[in-house]
Write a structure and sequence with these properties.
The chain is of the alpha/beta class. It contains 16 helices and 14 strands. Strands 2-8-7-6-5-3-4 form a 7-stranded mixed beta sheet, with helices on both faces. Helix 5 links the parallel strand 3 and strand 4. Helix 2 runs antiparallel to helix 11, helix 4 crosses helix 10 and helix 14 packs across helix 16. The protein starts with 20 loop residues before the first helix and ends with a strand. Bound molecules: pyridoxal-5'-phosphate. The site of pyridoxal-5'-phosphate (PLP) has 14 residues, from helix 4 and helix 5.
Length: 463
């Protein structure tokens, strides 16, 4: 494959340090065998998440000096709103501290609206809810249902659009349960199944179904630019269309978007909750913003954070950036595939997802095979990854049973503009070594199990 050079050069470096195996063993024991609880300085290459971990550009850093720190009516807010309107075509913007901030101010308003219209058992439908999205829906008494297409569940079968809805099942649910449906959430790209894109056609059809039934359409927009890039690359109708135009067309299909700007927004902190033209819902969400996030023109952010986001949203649309970013994820994925390591194929936009179920066929879901793999990779190399599987899925809020997880994946998540391809080769070499020793690794069980979002703070012991 032809190499793809990064469209930037490095102006400042941050040293990272390698640890010894003994140091890593001690650190992991102290962290209760949960890499989330490691101190970051004990990590060599941190692939836990692409969320808020990327490098900002010189333009973003420069813009921070011009941030307006006024409590109310900050110039930085109006500049951010203007860019949101230009890029997405949405009139009303609420800044929030990150993606879940948008969920916490929006979801109660949506559930209230659905109840006013007669919902007795409110439910959100999605291609796949992200874990905080699911948690926020459940915290306001709603349930969630995922309608991911079947090819997404078979990691070895290549399909360009594994983030797509299974439209038939979605239509069926709408026909049979219309009155209870709070909203349809289109997650682009679909993080939970491997950062997989949703096709324009699928977005259009799912949105039209919702529109025809009077159901609000919400885009969970964390990786909107990566999804647009995949549409450009994989859908021949769009091969000559600018990324900015594709983004417009996607967002034309929805009414509201929530965004963790820590991903394609290219900032270390920040998020958005935006409304195309529903002023009354916008006002309701603003009312919730004040006590939960902060005044409506800063939403938990400093003026300088909004200034950096304003530039980041524009840089996200740069095609050279998107090309080199996705090429780096592919570079890692290709090395693993060549060594016979099972991964979600094709690789997604922000991460390589390793299929731990295939590596540990004998470890049961409740003994968390992907967490076993994360721990072994850390011990081998100082590389930190994260589990996307039964641990993250959690328990059914009603009956307390472990919810069946579609996958047991280890996510190697690549921050934007942060690591080089040499770092990726080191990750690949280390994982190849770990997989050779798979038969010697032990399953895990809880030593401490939190009630919600348990992957962040759980502690484990080996069985
Ligand atoms: C698809 C998706 N939605 C929502 C969120 C929540 O965003 P945040 O972590 O900024 O609260 C994330 C975070 O990873 C995500 O990937």
């Amino acid at each position: 494959m032809k190499s793809v050079p990064e469209p930037w050069r490095i102006k400042m470096v941050e040293p990272i340090k390698m640890t010894t195996k003994i140091q890593r063993q001690n650190a992991l024991m102290e962290a209760g065998l949960n890499p989330f609880l490691l101190k970051a300085e004990d990590v060599f290459i941190d692939l836990l998440t692409d969320s808020g971990t990327g490098a900002m550009s010189d333009r973003q850093w420069a813009s921070m000096f011009l941030g307006d720190e006024s409590y109310a009516g900050s110039r930085s807010y109006y500049q951010l709103s203007q860019i949101v309107e230009e890029i997405f075509g949405y009139q009303y913007t609420i800044p929030v501290h990150q993606g879940r901030g948008a969920e916490q101010i929006l979801f109660p308003c949506l559930v209230e609206l659905a109840k006013e219209k007669g919902a007795s058992e409110p439910v959100f439908l999605s291609n796949h809810h992200f874990d905080t999205t699911k948690a926020h829906a459940e915290m306001v008494g709603a349930r969630v249902k995922d309608f991911i297409c079947s090819s997404a569940l078979q990691t070895n079968i290549p399909d360009d659009w594994k983030g797509n809805f299974d439209l038939e099942s979605l239509a069926n649910e709408i026909n049979h349960n219309r009155k209870n449906i709070v909203a349809i959430v289109i997650t682009i790209t679909c993080n939970s199944v491997g950062g997989q894109p949703v096709s324009m056609e699928n977005i259009r059809i799912a949105a039209a179904m919702a529109r025809d039934s009077g159901i609000p359409v919400v885009i969970d927009a964390a990786r909107f630019a990566e999804n647009a890039y995949f549409i450009k690359r994989r859908d021949s109708h769009y091969s000559d269309t600018a990324i900015s135009q594709i983004v417009k067309e996607i967002f034309d299909e929805a009414d509201i978007f929530t965004m963790s700007a820590k991903k394609d927004g290219m900032v270390n902190i920040g998020g958005l909750c935006c409304f195309r033209n529903n002023e009354s819902l916008f006002r309701k969400a603003q009312l919730r913003c004040v006590p939960m996030e902060g005044f409506v023109t800063y939403g938990g952010l400093a003026g300088r954070d909004m200034a950096a986001m304003t530039i980041g949203l524009q840089e996200a649309l740069n095609e050279d950036h998107l090309h080199s970013r996705i090429a780096q994820v592919e570079y890692l994925g290709n090395q693993l595939q060549q060594a016979g390591i099972p991964i979600q194929t094709p690789v997604g936009g922000h991460a390589v997802f390793v299929d731990a179920r295939k590596i540990f066929p004998d470890i049961r879901p409740e003994n968390f095979p992907a967490q076993v793999l994360c721990n072994a990779l850390y011990l081998e190399s100082g590389v930190r990854a994260t589990e996307i599987g039964s641990l993250m899925m959690g328990r059914d809020p009603v009956n307390g049973q472990q919810e069946p997880s579609l996958f047991e994946l280890m996510r190697l998540t690549i921050p934007r503009r942060t690591y080089t391809d040499n770092h990726m080769s080191y990750v690949a070499d280390s994982l190849i070594e770990v997989v050779k020793k798979a038969g010697t690794l032990r399953p895990l069980e809880f030593e401490y199990e939190p009630k919600v979002l348990r992957q962040f703070t759980a502690r484990f012991r080996e069985v």
